[in-house]
Amino acid sequence: MGSASHPLHIFFFPFFAHGHMIPTIDMARLFAARGVVATIVTTPLNAPLISKAIQKTITLGYKINIQTIKFPSVEAGLPEGCENVDSITSPNMIGNFMKAAAMLQEPFEQLLSEYHPDCLVADMFFPWTTDAAAQFDIPRLVFHGTSLFSLCASECLRLYEPHKKVSSDSESFVIPNLPDEIRLTRMQLSDFDKTDEVTDINKLFKESREAEKRSYGVVVNSFYELEHAYADHYREVLGRKAWHIGPVSLCNRDNEEKAQRGKEASITEHECLKWLDSKKPNSVVYICFGSVANFPESQLREIAIGLEASGQEFIWVVRKSKHNEEDKEEWLPEGFEKRMEGKGLIIRGWAPQVLILDHEAVGGFVTHCGWNSTLEGVSAGVPMVTWPVSAEQFYNEKQVTQILKIGVGVGVQKWVRMVGDSIKKEAIEKAVNQIMVGEEAEEMRNRAKALADIARLAVEAGGSSYSDLNSLIQELGSRCH
Ligand code: UDP
């Protein structure tokens, strides 16, 4: 609380991508449930996704609301209505999208001056918010949307540049000064990690790092027990101020809340549960690559054949949607859906991911290793096949396979922007079976279930994340007195 007469008011400003909006909404709801007044700032076309997700919190009497600012799509050279990364259709549009995001500074400052919140939690993609908030003496917290492990790994990569000391893109190097020996190759690094060129996106990352140094601290969607060595490393060795308050997805307790995250699902909650209810515990593998990654049709075909060959039951989320019933989906092997009837379910579009993962029938997860998906997999206690594509997903893969030992890699070698590397059907079949059947799968499942139990405890009263959130709220409250 800010004071007896004035509850703490916090602005949340998520980047316009589902992987950033979804956890920020959960986070705002967590703060609101502790008596904070939470305002989520977004753009008109993103607002409906948020209002749907905060309905229940409002009904419970907590104070959470939305403020919108106009997104200058057309002014920045984007098509009208392009306000979310999921409507970006080619990598060339990313630059314009970032330009539009930077143009929000002025209207955002107007909101700050009008409402004067006590704190701002803003996404790393809005580096200018630190100074904007400072003008009004408002502390800014940074939200990266990733783990402490990957924050440490990327910082040590930047500091020590081990990738410049190998002679080829496929030669592995160790990232120095980390609690574990983490090996990567140059091929697995993002474009921005490995180039010294001053590109727009590199400039943005640089500004983001500099703004972070002037910020109040960092809030992380993770829990101490999951990565304590890295939580300590981040604070004590790298000298950062951070609060871990996750897994934030665990604030979605009932099926309705779980089914309502993000976009409108392409399957009803009822239909989805009916399908899953008919399956035995741990018998279904769930395959989903997040909200941004896309695969060419040739890769979708390999996945279909690999899944069928594995003999496992599955739910597979395919982002490509059919325009109409007659649409031929050339990538589907002849008669695939007929043969898979009752055994495999394809969801075209958006799936209620947490609802699915938390169902006892689901026993494995093929994931692109976006941090939200990874942590949702951990929270559901399922072993994973790791299939990183871009962003910091190769770091998350290391954490799952090497440190937590709850997954196996499908064998991706190369970081690519948005469109995945090609993996053969045999590798898919093998990896799926590795996490679903046999002794190794059982061991991974046991470890994953143990982590899921600890995750639940972390967010309950007295748990590590619960307590860290409390101390953050108290610290911000005392700042207001
Ligand atoms: N998600 C979902 N249904 C889908 C695809 C994604 O609910 O069909 C959610 C998923 O649960 C996660 C988020 O969208 O919370 C994706 O974030 P992540 O960090 O995993 O990946 P990104 O989309 O940022 O690559």
UniProtKB/TrEMBL annotation:
Keywords: Glycosyltransferase, Transferase. This is Glycosyltransferase. Belongs to the UDP-glycosyltransferase family. One of its GO terms (molecular function) is UDP-glucosyltransferase activity. PROSITE patterns: UDPGT. Its EC number is 2.4.1.-. Gene3D superfamilies: Glycogen Phosphorylase B. The keyword Glycosyltransferase applies.
